[in-house]
Amino acid sequence: MRSAGRAQHHSRAALFAVLAGLHALSFAWSPFGGSKTEFEEVPLTPAEWSQVQVKAGWATGYPDDLLFEVASQLPGPMACHGVIIQLTSGKKIDKGFNPRLYVPAGSTKQVGVRGVTKGQMKDFNLACGCWKKPKDTRCGNPARQ
């Protein structure tokens, strides 16, 4: 029994080490490389949303796959984390994008979510942000620092 307890202790220690390593990596990860940056991701303002065009719809033959096309004219990249969908029934659905939808400046990208049948959607709101330096009002590009 003593060796079983020791083995359990070693497996817990190994699990703790793996989780601690993943935790440290999650803080170090950035879509712009491993270096520190003074940029912070912030939600888009109404003025910034006016520089973003969003189209939503369903592809022919796929009535359960809602597609979004996001075109950005922002001076820096943007990222969308997910969407809140208001259904005609009054119910709201919160769908995350995995991975996030990354849209470089002056580009158009597409993303889709499953489980929203054509004709069920009343409205939607994307959750998107861009990167800014503290006290800066314009979206910037952390990769170009």
SSE topology:
Layout: H1 2-28, E1 40-43, H2 46-49, E2 52-58, E3 65-72, E4 78-87, E5 92-103, E6 108-114, E7 121-132
Antiparallel strand pairs: 1-7, 2-3, 3-6, 4-5, 4-7
Overview of the molecule:
With 145 residues, this protein is α+β, with helices and mostly antiparallel strands. The protein folds into 2 domains: 1-30; 40-132, Sandwich (Immunoglobulin-like). It contains 2 helices and 7 strands. The strands form 2 sheets. A 4-stranded antiparallel β-sheet has the order 1-7-4-5, with no helix packed on it. A 3-stranded antiparallel β-sheet has the order 2-3-6, with no helix packed on it. The model is unreliable at 1-29 (pLDDT under 50).
Mean pLDDT: 81
> What structural class do you assign from the helix and strand content?
alpha+beta
- SSE succession: HEHEEEEEE
Total number of helical segments? Answer: 2
Low-confidence residue ranges: 1-29
The major sheet is characterized as: 4 strands, antiparallel
Using only C-alpha atoms, the radius of gyration works out to 21 Å
Strand order of the largest sheet: 1-7-4-5
> Mind telling me which CATH architecture of the largest domain this is?
Sandwich
| Chain oligomer state | single chain
N-to-C span: 58 Å
